[in-house]
């Protein structure tokens, strides 16, 4: 805790010493931004009833991340369920994405790409190539996005090309025999009527060493990917965007420290195509959109010993309708199809999902007040199918769910706003949990047709402050999660699925961005800092049976406090220094070093990183990047040690 306090003082108070002389650049990102994820249409962040965290293109580039997981871990306060360099899920407000292979319907935090389902919750499989920004919305988002948007929504927004031809090419080498080459181009033709953007990378990393000096054998990574977009703009406010993403990785799987493996490995391929026609409403009475996407995630374990192919695709169309002189109405119709196809040594049954949904949300502007009220109806038809090497009783079931939310924003003054919101999010039961039965490793699992959706209802109030050089805010929230889905013994070798009591969470969130400038001997020095944090006032599991087993009513993998913070210093045009930190407080964890498993409380840890950049000329830069600066020994999950100090030396050229 002392380290956190010292760092925050360093990030926030030192730049403030020059605030009297400061000037803000309107493009710095300190001023209110236009965001799309909270309401599905471009809206000023001052007009939405929840806080939207925006990770900019520049921040993504400076994070030196190899995938989306690395970016989120640096900037987003929450839990990261990370196993070496392979699996990684992200948790927001106590609910995390599904890091395993298979459908993202099992996620409790939803990952999107350009406003449509990413098809996976395993954020370590998503590349940062061609990413323009990432928007993070905390709290339920099921009214706009459907199932899995219970803890929050993370929207990865790809780049759209325009202007003169430009690009970059770079490379780096580092610790653990790491090397990476990357590059990209973008631009526009015919006065930007046609835009293009393309980026890619190739990287190899050897096995890493932990902060305690332990060599983690079989933790090597080979990764390559390419991502691109084409944009057609027939006129202002109308665009057709076509986006393609391909990423392939081959990773060692060292397993946990107690049961280390020198041979386990995985091969993962992520393929995606999407198209989006948007006609913005602007000053017209009607705006509308039509979108479609198709994603295929191929996962192979131990050289084809297990093969899992997950397809996620869908269509959606909607309209943004002006409702008189007081607001607008968003209406939409959606269809999604998800299939899981497992072969050889499988981990679960094959499944099929068809989902139809309708949604509507009214926005009302009344003077200094803005109100929102919306609802969504989802109808699922799901099937558990015949699966190789499993004994499966095929069956189909239907399932429906209604989500709702409301919110209000009061623009108190130019520099301050108040907001409040309440809403629901849900996770639908999966096909195997509802229908039929299957036998795996001597245990028969029978579906329960009476299962309810797992839901979370969140109430929150917050305030935001907008000054010349500071953008800050505070949020208090309470979440009640109920009807959590788990397995239940029904006899020797037999299990079924049942709803149990969930968890209650009360927390305090804060965010701050600042930018201060001074001139010293004709040299311009700019300080840019950020701070994001969450502190839980209450964490409680309501289920007595689970609490008795775990020896505590504190839910697993929810830290009492998480903070991300950083300070960037630009000295003239040639030198830049970044320093950042991530603090993760104590958390309860399940321990699989023995069977049956036990439970423990993991100690807090803090990890620092730094980056020095030198520009010998305007378009060329050299950088030294150091992650885990003080060689901290830590685990995100018990018995899975994370990498120690890591150095990278790189060069980048822009044209």
Characterization of this structure:
This protein has one domain: TonB-dependent receptor, beta-barrel domain (Maltoporin, Chain A, Beta Barrel). The chain is 7% helix and 59% strand. The protein contains six helices and 39 strands. A hairpin with a 2-residue loop joins strand 37 and strand 38.
The total domain count is 1
Could you please say which CATH topology applies here? Maltoporin, Chain A
Q: What helical percentage do the residues reach?
A: under 10%
CATH homology-level superfamily: TonB-dependent receptor, beta-barrel domain
Low-confidence stretches: 16-29
Give the percentage of residues in beta strands. Answer: over 45%
Could you give a quick summary of the protein structure above?
By secondary structure, this protein is mainly β.
Task: Write the topology of this structure.
Layout (H helix, E strand, L loop, with lengths): L1 H15 L17 E2 L7 E2 L7 E4 L1 H6 L5 H8 L3 E4 L5 E5 L2 E2 L13 E4 L2 E2 L13 E8 L3 H4 L6 E7 L7 E9 L3 E12 L4 E12 L15 E15 L2 E15 L12 E15 L6 E16 L4 E17 L4 E18 L5 E17 L2 E17 L5 E3 L1 E19 L2 E12 L3 H4 L2 E4 L2 E4 L7 E13 L3 E13 L1 E8 L2 E7 L2 E18 L2 E19 L2 H7 L10 E11 L3 E10 L2 E5 L6 E5 L2 E13 L2 E8 L18 E9 L1
Parallel strand pairs: 7-10, 26-30
Antiparallel strand pairs: 1-2, 3-9, 4-5, 5-6, 7-8, 9-10, 11-12, 11-39, 12-13, 13-14, 14-15, 15-16, 16-17, 17-18, 18-19, 19-20, 20-21, 21-23, 22-25, 23-24, 24-27, 25-26, 27-28, 28-31, 29-30, 31-32, 32-33, 33-34, 34-37, 35-36, 37-38, 38-39
């Amino acid at each position: 805790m002392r380290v956190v306090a010292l760092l925050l003082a360093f990030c926030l108070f030192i730049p403030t010493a020059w605030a009297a002389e400061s000037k803000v650049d309107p493009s710095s990102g300190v001023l209110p931004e236009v965001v799309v994820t909270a309401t599905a249409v471009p809206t000023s962040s001052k007009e939405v009833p929840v806080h939207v965290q925006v990770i900019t293109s520049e921040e993504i580039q400076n994070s030196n991340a190899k995938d989306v997981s690395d970016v989120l871990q640096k900037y987003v306060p929450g839990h990261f369920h990370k196993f070496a360099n392979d699996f990684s899920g992200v948790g927001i407000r106590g609910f995390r994405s599904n890091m395993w292979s298979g459908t993202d319907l099992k996620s409790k935090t939803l990952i999107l790409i350009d406003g449509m389902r990413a098809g996976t919750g395993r954020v370590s499989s998503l590349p940062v190539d061609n990413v323009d920004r990432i928007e993070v919305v905390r709290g339920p988002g099921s009214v706009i996005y459907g199932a899995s948007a219970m803890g929050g929504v993370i929207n990865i927004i790809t780049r759209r090309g325009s202007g003169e031809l430009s690009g970059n090419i770079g490379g780096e080498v580092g610790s653990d025999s790491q090397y990476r080459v990357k590059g990209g181009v973008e631009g526009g033709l015919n006065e930007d009527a046609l835009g293009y953007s393309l980026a890619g990378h190739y990287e190899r990393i050897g096995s890493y060493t932990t902060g305690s000096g332990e060599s983690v054998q079989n933790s090597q990574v080979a990764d390559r990917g390419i991502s691109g977009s084409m944009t057609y703009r027939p006129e202002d406010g109308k665009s057709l965007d076509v986006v393609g993403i391909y990423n392939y990785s081959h990773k060692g799987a060292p397993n946990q420290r107690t049961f280390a493996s020198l041979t386990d490995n995985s091969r993962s391929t992520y393929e995606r195509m999407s198209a989006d026609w948007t006609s913005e409403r602007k000053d017209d009475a009607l705006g509308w959109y039509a979108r479609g996407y198709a994603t295929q995630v191929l996962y192979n374990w131990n050289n084809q010993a297990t093969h899992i192919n997950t397809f996620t695709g869908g269509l959606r169309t909607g309209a943004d309708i002006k409702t008189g002189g007081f607001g607008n109405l968003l209406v939409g119709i959606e269809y999604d199809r998800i299939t899981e196809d497992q072969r050889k040594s499988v981990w679960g049954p094959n499944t099929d999902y068809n989902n139809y949904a309708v949604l509507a949300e009214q926005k009302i502007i009344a003077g200094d007040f803005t109100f929102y009220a919306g609802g969504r109806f989802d109808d699922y038809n799901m099937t558990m199918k015949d699966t190789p090497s499993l004994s499966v009783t095929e069956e189909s079931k239907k399932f429906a769910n209604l989500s709702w939310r409301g919110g209000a924003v009061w623009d108190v003054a130019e520099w301050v706003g108040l907001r409040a919101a309440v809403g629901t999010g849900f996770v639908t039961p999966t096909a195997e949990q509802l229908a039929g039965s299957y036998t795996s490793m001597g245990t028969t699992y029978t579906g329960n047709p009476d299962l309810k959706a797992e839901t979370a209802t969140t109430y929150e109030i917050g305030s935001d402050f907008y000054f010349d050089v500071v953008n800050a805010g505070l949020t208090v929230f309470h979440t009640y999660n109920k009807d959590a889905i788990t397995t239940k013994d029904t006899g020797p070798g037999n299990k079924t699925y049942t709803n149990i009591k969930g968890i209650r969470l009360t927390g305090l969130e804060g965010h701050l961005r600042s930018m201060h400038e001074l001139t010293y001997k004709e040299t311009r020095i700019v300080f840019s800092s950020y701070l994001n944090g969450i502190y839980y006032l209450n964490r409680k599991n309501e289920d007595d049976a689970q609490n008795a087993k775990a020896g505590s009513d504190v839910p697993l993998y929810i830290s009492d406090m998480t903070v991300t913070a950083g300070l960037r210093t630009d000295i003239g045009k040639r030198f830049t220094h970044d320093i950042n930190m991530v603090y993760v407080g104590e958390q309860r964890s399940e321990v699989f070093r023995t069977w049956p498993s036990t439970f423990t409380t993991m100690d807090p840890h803090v990890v620092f990183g730094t980056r020095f950049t030198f520009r010998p000329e305007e378009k060329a830069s050299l950088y030294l990047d150091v992650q885990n600066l003080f060689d901290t020994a830590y685990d995100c999950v018990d018995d899975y040690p994370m990498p120690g100090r890591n150095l990278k030396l790189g060069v980048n050229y822009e044209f």
